[in-house]
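**User:** Hello, beginner here. Are you able to go through the protein record under this note? It all follows right here:
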Amino acid sequence: MTARFYISAPDDWDPTLVARLETHLRVFDLDGRYRLQVANHLSTLFHMFTGRPRSGIADHLARSAEGWTKTNPNSWESALYRTLAADTWYINGGWKEASPPHL
């Protein structure tokens, strides 16, 4: 599983602002930095989900997504949990492949 962070701006945003955000993402290597954080979260989720029923996984991800989105809808955590909560592959067992237990 690979996480990728990018700017997804609404159509009505000023193109100059979007360019500044894209530059910020690139210059500070936020995609790379966030990927490292995602690896930690995926490893933790692997251990949390082991032995748990599938319905518990979907519920946990949905609640986490909601919590992160309310806290900060633009955080990488919010993006991660929203994406995982909507990913049927991940919920249906992909989490086992996404994060080996030795991480």
Remarks:
- The mean pLDDT is 88.
- The chain has one domain: 15-98.
- The radius of gyration is 15 Å.
- The CA atoms of residues 46 and 99 lie 6 Å apart.
